[in-house]
Amino acid sequence: MIVAIYAYEGRYQGYHGINDMGVFEVENEAEANDCGREMAEGVVDSFGLREEIIEEELAFNPDLSEDDLWEDIEDDLELSWEIAKVLNTKGKTVDELDKEISHLGWDLFLEEYETEML
């Protein structure tokens, strides 16, 4: 099954380019969800969002311990992703579709290719 995945996190919700997207061939929806989670984690890591949240929390609550915040940070991240099954590839390979989604963006890709949200 070929899927398009759009990954982001709860703070910026994909705005300001703080997101990731791609097209993948997966065996099932569970594998697509694993891929989406990994992509969302990558968004958080590449933009330093864990550190940003900790800095803000410490600025507002100086009595808190940074170690305590690291333990609670995962709840604040709100990892998110959307998965669309690509029903009509228009004869393109997964690599070609991956380039297309980068060029078109999520919304236009969904319009261009017949998809079904999972």
Describe the secondary structure blueprint for this structure.
Elements lengths: L1 E8 L10 E6 L3 H18 L2 H12 L5 H12 L1 E8 L7 H11 L1 H7 L2 E3 L1
Antiparallel strand pairs: 1-2, 1-3, 3-4
Helix pairs in contact: 2-3, 4-5
Describe this protein's structure:
The chain has 118 residues and is of the alpha+beta class. 51% of the residues lie in helices and 21% in strands. The chain has 5 helices and 4 strands. The protein has helices at 29-46, 49-60, 66-77, 94-104, 106-112, and strands at residues 2-9, 20-25, 79-86, 115-117. Strands 2-1-3-4 form a 4-stranded antiparallel β-sheet, sandwiched between helices. Helix 2 packs across helix 3 and helix 4 crosses helix 5. It is elongated and about 60 Å long. The mean pLDDT is 88.
Key features of this structure:
four-stranded antiparallel beta sheet, 4 strands, single chain, 118 residues, alpha+beta
Q: Report the uncertain regions.
A: none
Count the beta strands.
Answer: 4
Distance between the termini: 12 Å
Taking Cα atoms only, what radius of gyration do you get, to the nearest Å?
A: 17 Å
Percent helix, as a range, is 40-55%
- Average per-residue pLDDT, rounded, comes to 88
H/E series: EEHHHEHHE
Oligomer: single chain
Structural class: alpha+beta
Q: What's the story with the biggest beta sheet?
A: 4 strands, antiparallel
Shape call: elongated
Beta-strand proportion = 15-25%
Taking strands numbered 1, 2, ... along the chain, how are they ordered across the largest sheet? 2-1-3-4
